[in-house]
Amino acid sequence: MIISQQDRQQLQDAKNLLENPGFIAKVTHVIGMPIEGALARLPRRVTARIAGITQAALTKALDAAVFTIKDLPGELPSNRWHKAGIAVSGGVGGFFGLAGLSVELPLSTSIMLRSIADIARSFDERIDSEEAKQACLAVFALGGRSSTDDDTETGYYAVRAALAKSLSDGSILKLIAAVAERFSLHVSEKAAAQSIPAIGAVGGAVINLAFIDHFQDMATGHFIVRQLERRYGIEAVQQLYQALPKRAF
User: How far, CA to CA in Å, does 86 sit from each of 65, 144, 155, 230?
Assistant: First the structure.
């Protein structure tokens, strides 16, 4: 089946979103200072806890009935409302610093997951299905590495293949664990940025806006690809995706 020029351009737009420099680059841009130093100075006791906090946040987000939005495929997403909600939670997290991460992260993750589901619906996903829910959860793994990744395992389709393996026995808990391993990298970056003394509550809100902006981009790219896969088949879309040029930043 021949993919139309319009859909080829849409797939290029999706690749531009999915293969971007990542959350850390967005944070550096919005706060006007690099955070690599803060990431290196993050206390070991904090980094050791982040994996557990992240997995618990994802589990609580799923348990928070975030998929109660009406199943109306094609409905436009409410990105601004979700950004407003996460800015408030980020302000609270920024005020309490690292100590507030275990309280703030489940709330912000629930808001982001609902936003991701909202975006999925706009690309004709049936969000009441288990497949769509798993696809929404997978967005948190995009644009991040795991501790076992090499350079060949960080692309969009490579991450999807890795997550599919975790679901081979049908266990949603294994999928959550696999997603959490990659999502925790972003959480570490967020925690490092919020630990900078000059950030505070206002900076925490700004960082959370960059946080949700990143995952809204990942969701948009992901569900563009899935929509085209339903139209043309997975193999055809994957081959074209890999052949398209990677956007230079």
Answer: 17, 20, 27, 32
Per residue in 106-164, pLDDT (tens digit) is: 888 888 898 898 899 999 998 888 888 899 999 999 986 655 555 555 689 999 998 98
Which element (helix H / strand E) includes 13?
Answer: helix 5-18
**Is the separation of the CB atoms in 82 and 115 below 8 Å?**
yes
**Residue extents of the structural domains in the chain:** 23-213
Distance (Å, whole) CA 47 – CA 33:
21
> Tell me: the pLDDT tens digits for 14-23?
999 998 867 7
Euclidean distance between CA atoms 244 and 200, whole angstroms: 42
What are the phi and psi torsion angles at 220 (to 5°)?
Answer: -60, -50
Tokens of 236: 């055809």
Closest CA to 184 of 122, 113, 105: 105
Dihedral Cα 73, 74, 80, 85, nearest 10 deg: 0
Contacts of 113 (CB under 8 A, 6+ apart): 61, 62, 66, 136, 137, 140
Q: Which two tokens stand for residue 23?
A: 């959350």
The span from the CA of 162 to the CA of 212, in Å, is 23
Distance CA 91, CA 97 (A): 10
**DSSP reduced 3-state for 66:** coil
As a dihedral over the C-alpha atoms of residue 75, residue 79, residue 80, residue 85, rounded to 10 degrees, the angle is 120
